[in-house]
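Data availability (excerpt). All sequences and predicted token strings are deposited with the supplementary files. A representative entry, Glycosyltransferase RgtA/B/C/D-like domain-containing protein, is shown inline so that the format can be inspected without opening the archive.
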Amino acid sequence: MNFTSSFRCISSRQNCIIIAGMRKILREDLLWSAVLMASLFLLSFKFLTLWFILDDSANIYASLQDPLKLIFDRDTYLFFNKMFYTPLLPISFKPDFLLFGFRPFAYHMHNLFAAFLTGLMGYKIYRLYLPRFESWAGTFLFMLSFPIVNDIGWLSMRHYLWGSFFALASFYLFKRSEAESSISVLSWLFYLISLLSKESFAPLPAIVFLLAKGNLREKAVKSIPFFLALGCYLVLRHYIIGGLGGYPGGLPDPHPASLIKNYVSQLSMVSRAVWGLPLYVSAPVLILVFLSDKRVAAVCIGLLALTTAPFMFLKVSGVLDDYSTFYFPSKYILPLYIFSGATASALAYAPRKHLKFLSAALLCLLFVLQLVHAGASHGFIKHSAESYRELASGGLDRNIQGKDLLIVSQDAIFYNFLYATYTDSKKPSETNLGTVITIDNPDLCGLLGGRLNGKHDSIYRNEKWSDQDGEIISTPLRIDNTVPKPAVSMDMKGQFLSFSVTDSKNGSFYAALKSAFSPRNIAIQSMLLPKHVPMKLGLARGRDMLYLFYCDGGRCSEPIVISPGGG
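Structure token line:
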């Protein structure tokens, strides 16, 4: 048998294990599975009819691209996302758009289905360590919670659901193959798929090492394929986005004390989002686990440290708005899975009746608190969906009438994605539409020339549409040829620009990125540049152009213009 045949045989066998495991749950635990699905549906019901929000249109647009190019082609991916490498997120939107177009209910049901499968896979792993009742108790505690329900309603958080499923499936297949002394190629593949969903699942090789059977050498041998898969992913990620990625200025102060403070702030946000409790109230749950089984408690603490480690470097702002309050906790699916399993293990292994009673009471209390807070983000997502729908419907109505639009809004680029999706999915004869230019900062309208200083039929600003002629916007910033260009250190390697403002002058330094979806669909995004802070940006050839300005007292320099390939 050649390698290809062997691989197909092994993969097919491992795939059968997953399918057989799911069938066994549905056959032997049909009632529990049905209750779980019904509970998820009821908890998330008010989310299911909400329209798309901003990020969703970017993923729908990217889903129209060739899936292989989204994974392996720089230009295709960089135009969609310059900061994070998560190609399977837009790919997961492809069947939704092809089958259902712009009907969001089906997209939400997709997320609900992904969450349900994640719960079943989580149950299968619990059963490796816990009795049946405690496994279901842990599963319900895990699933009927804020992160899961929020990610059903927040469509573009789907990659945390599918990523969790594939990470859990990878570990489950590893434990099955370990018990059978066989090799699980599909386990390694599923881990790679989870990474292509979201990088936060990177710690799985360390988890495999921690929980594998055998001495240190045997543990290392078993975890090596996972570390190799992680290495391949990091090489591909670096090739596509030019590095590890992340939000510009999104890293916290690297000083250990600052990192710990930032980390505790995130955990506090999670505790309040999930249970409505401060961290110092929810954390002592682990004391019960320690009293029940010290070894299990130590393992759970190690697993919590590993699964939360990727979020340690996400900077928590000093001023928390609704977005931050809901965004950070929605990522903590695997840590919550570990926490739920730890709580269930305290119930399963409590050596004394009073400890078992306390564990059961605590689990019930946490469960009730979770039900109360599970849908906390509904108001925020609903407002975001309604605001974006007003922008989108108003813009498309005007564009279809052939009107030229200027949209001035912080998140204006997401209309460009929607408009590009609309035009790309229509026949050429149906797309004789108007032009749209979006910009996120009204102060920069006077700097970029062309149609920004011309006439537009309709303008969107301050969440309102207006139809008018004439000068469309006044701005305090204007080009003045007497103002010197900024001093900037630059290094262009291929499509990746590394730069830093080295200028000693007082004033403001701006970067404006112009992205051309088409000649009649242009987006301009900007940011205020700090001095002496190294930055890196990937540019899509033929579509992206970067402008660097220096401004002082309303007068600005001619821009430094950077385009990949000299275009």
